[in-house]
Amino acid sequence: MARTAVVSGGGTGIGLAVAERLAAAGDDVILTGRREDVLADAASRIGDQASYVAADLETLEGAAAVLQHASEHAGRIDVVAAAAGGNTAAKAPADLQGLERVSWAWNANLRLNVMTAVHLVEGLKPILNDGGRILLFSSIAAYRGSGTGSYGASKAALHPYAIDLSSELGSRGITANVIAPGYTEDTEFFGTSMTEERRTMLIGQTDNKRPGTPGDIAALAAWLASPEAGHVTAQIIQSNGGALAGR
């Protein structure tokens, strides 16, 4: 019997790769994100197993829209993959300076990286089946900083959230884990800010001397979402080619 997975940030990058991997394994997938056209293209790429709902998960209204869509299309769900996120610190309005600029960046990144995950997971709890899987997506920046403070801190906040979710839901066979990727190409994360010099430096930090790919993260996510991973929970699992040793 096919399971149903809800994937935020499902239109591009890691979220899309996760959705494609789960669909390839036989799951139905519900994609969500803010851009309807991007979601429509992604769903078309996946095929009949995919549906989508455009929603801003920084808001309660967005969470309610995802719950309504999932309830109407699937009734119950089995996997929640909260892949939406990013670093908005550099996008602060130009007229903000000093403390106002810092405050804007922190609030924006907390909304984008923490509250989108919290709203998605908490909103879907009422229809999450026993034996379900919750996947949160952090970053290597949660361990070693991001240069702006707010991004790494917002990703690190997901770690204790997963631990608490595991404690709360574990008796129902539900697992909650965090994937913390290192440098991953073919995503929208870096926009136009990635230089060849920086790329070379990031790849040079790895032991296997290559960048990560969305497919690397999707493969790990698919295993954590599988029945075989039922005893793996409350873990933060890095995927960075050895750029930062496990701890």
Automatic annotation (TrEMBL):
Record PROSITE patterns: ADH_SHORT (PS00061)
GO molecular function term, any single one: oxidoreductase activity
Gene3D superfamilies: NAD(P)-binding Rossmann-like Domain
Pfam families: adh_short_C2
Domain Ketoreductase, first and last residues per copy: 3-182
InterPro entries according to UniProt: KR_dom, NAD(P)-bd_dom_sf, Sc_DH/Rdtase_CS, SDR_fam, Sec_Metab_Biosynth_SDR
Keywords tagged on the record: NADP, Oxidoreductase
Similarity annotation: Belongs to the short-chain dehydrogenases/reductases (SDR) family.
Protein name per its UniProtKB record: 3-oxoacyl-[acyl-carrier protein] reductase
Species of provenance: Glycomyces artemisiae
